[in-house]
Design brief:
The protein is built from 9 helices and 13 strands. Helix 7 links the parallel strand 9 and strand 10. It has a 6-stranded mixed β-sheet, with helices on one face. It has a 5-stranded mixed β-sheet with strand order 4-3-5-13-6, with helices on both faces. Strands 1-2 form a two-stranded antiparallel sheet. By secondary structure, it is of the alpha/beta class. The chain is about 45% helix and about 25% strand. Helix 1 crosses helix 2 and helix 1 packs across helix 4. The chain folds into 3 domains: about 80 residues, Orthogonal Bundle (Arc Repressor Mutant, subunit A); about 100 residues, Periplasmic binding protein-like II (D-Maltodextrin-Binding Protein, domain 2, 3-Layer(aba) Sandwich); about 100 residues, D-Maltodextrin-Binding Protein, domain 2 (3-Layer(aba) Sandwich), CATH 3.40.190.10. The longest helix has 28 residues.
């Protein structure tokens, strides 16, 4: 017994006319008659009473109608589910990020969730090296990392960049300036993330300060940029943070543009092109679209 037997049977059961049922199925009448006879032979029952003038369902045929509909409905549903998985419309996506509140991360997640609401997203806060390792191991699908980062055998695309700004306690003497020379931070107690979170960027920052003639006086190391801002608000030090973190922050903090050769904060999207995840490609496409849109807006300003 094959699925086409059920489809042919239902068409005839609903039309009760071989000619109309055959036309509905886009086949000729003889093959339809043969398929119905084959089904009856396999089941060992007569499904239709046939005369020259009409076709009627037998009692056995009438009992098969709902069962056949149920089978075909289940098959159609299973086909749709498999197709959606294959198109990346459903499934699970595990994403890593150094800073979950980065604009590129927020906008990408928002856009993706609207287009693919049935994909379950797991967001994990991880250092750039940890993301690199987990993607290599297949335990993370995609990551948002801070560049530079050496990522052999993986795809690494730059998707966002922004300047650094100085985060200062509101009563700090430097807060009176609209722009703060990098050199003026010499000797200031600083709050900084540990090198392990983003080694490449950490080294760039340290080198930039040395090129300006000083070494950062790091008095507190924190594993979160929000912890750094809390310490700045408490007046225990200053910090260098991405410009996007200026919005909606504590009234006890002021942000000032930096003067001097300061590295930009660059965010990369990291993933394994050989991944078997069906939802990875749609997500990567969304991130690229969001990144391109953001760059286009920036270019017009």
């Amino acid at each position: 017994m094959e699925l086409r037997h059920f489809r042919y049977f239902l068409a005839l059961a609903e039309e009760l006319h071989f000619g109309r049922a055959a036309a509905r199925l886009h086949i000729s009448q003889p093959p339809l008659s043969q398929q119905i006879r084959d089904l009856e032979r396999e089941l060992g029952v007569q499904l239709f009473y046939r005369t020259k003038h009409k076709v009627e369902l037998s009692e056995a045929g009438a009992s098969l109608v709902e069962e056949a509909r149920r089978v075909l409905t289940q098959v159609d549903w299973a086909t749709r589910v498999v197709s959606r998985v294959n198109r990346g419309e459903t499934g699970r996506l595990t994403i890593g990020t150094v800073t979950a509140e980065k604009p590129i991360v927020v906008r990408s997640l928002r856009t993706f969730a609207k287009s693919y609401p049935d994909v379950h997203i797991e967001l994990r806060s991880l250092s750039s090296p940890a993301q690199l390792q987990l993607i290599h191991e297949g335990r993370l699908d995609v990551g948002f990392v801070i560049l530079p980062l050496a990522a052999t055998e993986l795809v690494l695309e730059t998707v966002a960049h922004e300047p650094l700004v100085a985060a200062l306690p509101r009563q700090h003497p430097l807060s009176a300036q609209s722009r703060v020379p990098l050199r003026s931070l010499a000797g200031e107690p600083s709050v900084l993330f540990p090198r392990v979170l983003s080694p490449g960027y950490y080294d760039q920052l340290i080198v930039s300060c040395r090129n300006a003639g000083f070494s950062l006086n790091v008095v507190h190391e924190v594993d979160s940029i929000y912890t750094a801002l809390a310490l700045v608000a408490a007046g225990v030090g200053i910090s260098l943070v991405p410009a996007s973190l200026q919005d909606g922050r504590s009234k006890d903090i002021v942000f000032r543009e930096l003067q001097g050769r300061v590295p930009r904060v660059e965010c990369g999207m990291l993933y394994n092109e050989a991944s078997r995840s069906t939802v990875l490609k749609p997500f990567v496409d969304v991130v690229r679209q969001v990144a391109q849109s953001k760059m286009s807006i920036a270019a017009r300003k």
